[in-house]
Amino acid sequence: MIPGKYRSVSGRAANNVNCGLHLVIQTSSLPEKNKVEFKLNKDTSSFPGRLLQHDLERNYSSRQGDHINLVSSSLSSFPILQRSSEEKILYSDRLSLERQKLTVCPIINGEDHLRLLNFQHNFITRIQNISNLQKLISLDLYDNQIEEISGLSTLRCLRVLLLGKNRIKKISNLENLKSLDVLDLHGNQITKIENINHLCELRVLNLARNFLSHVDNLNGLDSLTELNLRHNQITFVRDVDNLPCLQHLFLSFNNISSFDSVSCLADSSSLSDITFDGNPIAQESWYKHTVLQNMMQLRQLDMKRITEEERRMASVLAKKEEEKKRESHKQSLLKEKRRLTINNVARQWDLQQQRVANIATNEDRKDSDSPQDPCQIDGSTLSAFPEETGPLDSGLNNALQGLSVIDTYLVEVDGDTLSLYGSGALESLDRNWSVQTAGMITTVSFTFIEFDEIVQVLPKLKIKFPNSLHLKFKETNLVMLQQFNALAQLRRIDQLTIDPQGNPVVNFTLWKYYVLFRLSHFSMQKINGTEVTQNDMIMAERLFGILAHVASSELPQYRLISILGDARKKQFQYLLESKGKKPGIINEENNDSKRLVGENTNRATLNYTTRDFYNEKLEEIKEKKKFCKTYIEDLVKEATEINMKNEALQKLWPQMFIELVRDAVIEIRNKNSYMKLCLQQITDQK
Amino acid sequence: MLSPERLALPDYEYLAQRHVLTYMEDAVCQLLENREDISQYGIARFFTEYFNSVCQGTHILFREFSFVQATPHNRVSFLRAFWRCFRTVGKNGDLLTMKEYHCLLQLLCPDFPLELTQKAARIVLMDDAMDCLMSFSDFLFAFQIQFYYSEFLDSVAAIYEDLLSGKNPNTVIVPTSSSGQHRQRPALGEAGMLEGVEASLFYQCLENLCDRHKYSCPPPALVKEALSNVQRLTFYGFLMALSKHHGINQALGALPDKGDLMHDPAMDEELERLVVRSKLHRTSRQHRAKEPGAFGFQRREKQEALERVSSASVPMPYHYRWEPRE
């Protein structure tokens, strides 16, 4: 019936349909151009074929051997084949030497019109002695030990060449077989597809169970309709779009893991049936719809018909994938931009710190021998900001070419966190934030910004982001405990995170306790991630309580007022400076600040003025001091003069007194003249 | 009152010696600065408060460094204030770095210079690794010497260096504040073989200095006592000896003896009260919703201040009175 090997080959596929090849030869005397039909059918073939089937059956039965005589010749090592003449007449065009334990091809004489030759299931190692059979159409060498394709150069009529289950390592020597229709090389050791580009009549090519690792070099096979590549090690497929007639492609049980490696299939308009089962790609979640989406022409996938429903699903899913990819592309672009900006800000920050440090050291070592290079950037002191050098895909690179201007600061809002990088970012607090966005912000993070600059915008922060409860500081140059005093003006802080990087204050033993002490009215819950316990609060109070007591009770009244007044004045000033504020709101805010500043009065005098402000204030006071000095000096001069005069008077007074008395006595000595004098004085007065 | 010595001095000199003018100038300056606030309750009261605070030694709180340094009394008051405020830190047993002590100093005086703290730390650490931790008492006593006698010490440093390099010790040297200590460092390196200078020679120079010096200096007798046990000494050894000397400490009158450094019963009582109050405050705050007080800020604050004024008038154990010193 059907040659066994075809049944078995297809039977190994995990499906129920039996798609064996049915060999039908019409023996109506046709010229060389015999139409040899190969039909895929499940049903029985046409009438004439059935008759022939019978014949074939009989031909290919194991009893065949009875009709053959193999005579070994003494001349050569090859046995010579002889058939009885009745055989020759009955089966003139076919010869079956199946299971004859042949190790070599025998010499076949007098059968030059043979058309079908069967050598199945032998031990033949070389194809020989058949060059004379120039009318051969079908040569079956299935299940032998052939290592090389050779000896076929004269068989120009050959249409079917079955070399399955041999030991062939290379496809070669098929140059003259231009009429080849079926080439079966399954079960061999072939590693490369080659030397078949001239087979333009080839319709079925079976390369299953070989050692192929990739598929290419298929151009020229203009008639190929079926290509069987099952059970190989194929990782990518090329050139399939050069096969204009290919309908069935079997790639089961290979090593294909991505659709890109078989992308040429999408360009093949003739392909209608494909199998990928047993490949890594078939395990992926996106397998089915990707294949369907990319190969709209498919009618069967993995031996199952593709329904309309499936196609629709596929396109929907594919669209979703596309969206996701675009989204992630956008995200990675944004992320890249963000990373670049932050790196830029970090670099600027380092430069700034370097400059400041160099100025400081230069002042210290005015007469040192080795002057510092102010522009020297010591690599080791650069902030350890990780340079994420992941591989950027080309799309990303192209997009980044457009980023000619890299910002010097970055503001980002991520759900409930507002992150500010670089001092330029502080200006963003002036923006018109929507009430909703601003209300959602609970965490504010400052990085690469001087703390002194942050202090100045804290009032704005209080107003614009009333729900900010968690403050984070990193690389903000927090160096003194005093600076924490500035945080007291906020409405409320639940959590405080001071990153050790760039904030030397964290190295102090007492910093946490000081924060808890100074900001006790906030009842903070966490500092740097650790919970604040009752004991911590008590310890803080114990350590610094006296400071608070001294600061409040021992200061004279006027100092208390002046210090507190200063603080409030400053806040008010910031409020006035902010843009777009209506006067009504200002008053409200002022009252608000009045109320809340007085939360914990005994430490309210512990304020922080930034260095610049402080120096400014001192400058202002200089004038007053000068004036006071001169004023006091004048006073002193006056006082000393008066003192001197007083002392002089003290010294001279006795003498003066005596003289006064003496003058008076002398005056009164002569009573008469004195009376006259007095009367004269009285008349003069009138 | 009208003692003969007082009358013997001409006016300016008398005033200068008592630093009266400094305080007068400062008072007037403060008056000018806070004109609006002070005019509320009268100038007389202001002056009363001002000079009261000068007497009590609270006038230097949160003032600029130039004022804190201006008079010996100011310096002593500052030392006292520092001791009182941060005694608890010492009591807790924490060892702090020089930077942290400097931070604490800055809490009381925002522009306190780092060099002074560094110099004080050098005394404690004997010019060794500057990142070492120091105990509160060590630092405080060293700081006292450095801060109170800073000009004197600069001159001493110059003298020491001259002695080391073998120059004539009797020539008068008036160094600038920075160069003295600065030249010190290379010299110490050379003193490897000969450990410091001879004590008696050193003392002679010091005596001359004390006679000539217009800045305050430690009583020569006590200095002699400090130097009596040693043959040779280094600069920092000398300073360390000074800082540890009880007599000098008492002569200054700012800080109690080392043994009593952590004791201040009145303040401890006050502290306990504060701690209790904060405990109650915290728990009550957790219970009740956050609501601002009905009264304005000033009112509440005034009340507290009034309370405090009455308690401040109670004489305290180490109360420093403004008295003429030798």
From TrEMBL, chain A:
**InterPro entries according to UniProt:** Cilia_flagella_integrity (IPR050576), Leu-rich_rpt (IPR001611), Leu-rich_rpt_4 (IPR025875), Leu-rich_rpt_typical-subtyp (IPR003591), LRR_dom_sf (IPR032675)
Q: Is Flavoprotein included in the keywords of this UniProt record?
A: no
Which keywords does UniProt give here? Coiled coil, Cytoplasm, Cytoskeleton, Leucine-rich repeat, Microtubule, Repeat
Coiled-coil region(s) at which residues? 306-339
- Give the UniProt subcellular location, in the record's own words: Cytoplasm, Cytoskeleton, Microtubule organizing center, Centrosome, Centriolar satellite
Q: Name one Pfam family in it.
A: LRR_9
Tell me yes or no: is Cytoplasm among this UniProt entry's keywords. Answer: yes
What SMART domains does this protein's entry cite? LRR_SD22 (SM00365), LRR_TYP (SM00369)
Q: What is its main location?
A: cytoplasm
The source's superkingdom equals Eukaryota
One term under GO cellular component: microtubule
Query: Where is the region Disordered?
Result: 360-388
Subunit note: Part of the neuronal tubulin polyglutamylase complex which contains TPGS1, TPGS2, TTLL1, LRRC49 and NICN1. Interacts with PCM1; TTLL1, TPGS1, TPGS2 and LRRC49.
Role summary: Subunit of the tubulin polyglutamylase complex (TPGC). The complex mediates cilia and flagella polyglutamylation which is essential for their biogenesis and motility.
Name it: Leucine-rich repeat-containing protein 49
Could you read off the lineage of the organism from its UniProt record? Answer: Eukaryota, Metazoa, Chordata, Craniata, Vertebrata
TrEMBL record, chain B:
Location (main, coarse) = cytoplasm
Show the InterPro entries listed in the entry. CSTPP1 (IPR038968)
Which Gene Ontology cellular-component terms appear in the entry? centriolar satellite; microtubule
The keyword Phosphoprotein belongs to this UniProt entry's keyword annotation: yes
Q: Which domain of life is it from?
A: Eukaryota
* UniProt keyword annotations, A-Z: Cytoplasm, Cytoskeleton, Microtubule, Phosphoprotein
Cite the residue spans of the region called Disordered. 282-301
Q: Where is the protein localized?
A: Cytoplasm, Cytoskeleton, Microtubule organizing center, Centrosome, Centriolar satellite
Q: What does this protein do?
A: Regulator of the tubulin polyglutamylase complex (TPGC) that controls cytoskeletal organization, nuclear shape, and cilium disassembly by balancing microtubule and actin assembly. Regulates the assembly and stability of the TPGC and thereby modulates polyglutamylation of the microtubule, which antagonizes MAP4 binding.
The similarity comment for this entry is: Belongs to the CSTPP1 family.
Cite the record's note on assembly: Interacts with PCM1. Interacts with TTLL1, TPGS1, TPGS2 and LRRC49; the interactions link CSTPP1 to the complex TPGC. Binds to alpha-tubulin.
Question: What is this protein identified as?
Answer: Centriolar satellite-associated tubulin polyglutamylase complex regulator 1
Per the UniProt entry, what species is this protein from, by scientific name? Pan troglodytes (Chimpanzee)
Q: Which gene encodes it?
A: CSTPP1
